[in-house]
Amino acid sequence: MGTDERHIATVDADGVALVAIQGLNQKLEAKEAEITDLRQRLEKLERLMNQNNGGVK
What sections of 1-57 are H helices per DSSP? Predict the structure, then answer.
């Protein structure tokens, strides 16, 4: 990846950083989707509880 086995070229280091950033972005997007799903499930459960308790929180 570099001029010899002990060094890395700047272009290669930038590529590695870009791939790492893309991987982290994928993880972030997955977490955001999970949070959205959990919020929707929580809201549904709260609505059901409120209906069963006559609207009392």
Answer: 10-52
Q: Which domain holds residue 41?
A: 7-57
Q: Is residue 2 part of a domain?
A: no
Question: Which amino acid, 16?
Answer: V
Residue 55 one-letter amino acid: G
Q: Has residue 20 been placed in a domain?
A: yes
**Residues 1 and 12 sit within 8 Å (Cβ to Cβ):** yes
Q: How far apart are the first and last CA of the chain?
A: 61
- Domains of the chain: total: 1
pLDDT, tens digit, 9 for 90 and up, residues 3-57: 677 877 778 888 889 999 999 999 999 999 999 999 999 999 999 999 988 766 5
pTM of the model: 0.68
